[in-house]
Amino acid sequence: MIRLLVPLAGFAAFFLLSLVTVRTVQPRQPRLFFLAYAIALLAASAFVYVRIWPLESVDDGVGLLACLLLQLLMCLTMWNAFYSLLWGFSGGLVHDLYNEAELRHVDRLVRSYERQTGLDRILARRLPGLEAGGYIERQGDAMRLRWKGRLIALGTLAAFKTFSLGMGGGVNRLRDASAGRE
Amino acid sequence: MLTTLAVAALALFALQSALVAAASALRPSANIYITIILVSLITAPLAALTDRFLLGETLARDGRFYLVVVHLSLGGFLFHFMTLPDRSVTLRILVEVLLAPGQALSARALGERYGVKTMITSRLEQLSAARFIEISADGRIVLAPRGLAFGRFVTAGRKLFGIASAN
To answer: pTM for this one?
Structure first.
């Protein structure tokens, strides 16, 4: 069990490095830093583990695999919490409700997301990123998928079907079904 | 040894994924995340017994313990993986374009198919069902104790990471 201290230390380093980077560098794409730190710290943990417990048996090998997977899982959990809870939609909704009393009404909350431009706050933040990332392209008024976007959309659709997720996107599957979207 | 370990990990992940897919097909209305946690926990003791089958030799007590840690970690990855198709607005946008007639969609048409009102109302319903908020008949929203705690967490987290604007 003592070997689990290795992934715990690796995760603590990941958290601190990520926190300092986001606060001081304020990168446009924090995930690139998260990825680099996660990979570097996995390599460091593997190095430390093998130095202390050389791979002399399958038990040692399983221990190494467990430590690396656990460390990666903890890093991914922080990464996901950062993007999904702190930066994501549901977290954003609760943040608005918690901090702005006047938004604690369904209609006012919906209106706060609408924009005069025709694009609501949610789409206005995502479509430029998808276009810049090469996932979609604009042809006049129409959006089309580029190969990267098509590949991801097909994979997502496969996951919808495999795991019976309806149409995903955080929308209740019964709501989608009642709107004829499944 | 590394190849054997990689194959064993893949097998454990595939087993959990298949069981979660089967359980979701049988009960599509069930919460997928609870299904993943249950599948992972219920099958964890079995993972400890698969050492000879997966690795070709019997592990010591510590080895079996780490095999269970591997199994549970892989369940954790499945949990995180599931948030992508299930929760991501961005992925849903890509699928909407894929499924549109001629695979082309204007921003206005996208807003009609997957608009802000649908998104917010659905999320509020989910937050209400999970007892984070209460919504009265006239549309007023009250944060329940769980919602207040979540609100404090998100606010503190954004302050900690210096996030000024999001979602």
So the answer is: 0.85
